[in-house]
Amino acid sequence: MVGIYGSFIAILGGALSNYIGKKFSKKSLLIIFMFFNIFSTSLLIFIEQYNLTFYYLIISVTFIALAIALSSAIIFSMIMDYSKKESRAIDYSVQSSIFSFTRIISAVIAGIIVSNFGFDKMFIFELFCIILITLVIHLKYSKKY
Question: Which of 69, 80, 125, 128 suits 36 as a labelling partner, its CA being 20 to 30 A distant?
Answer without folding.
Answer: 80
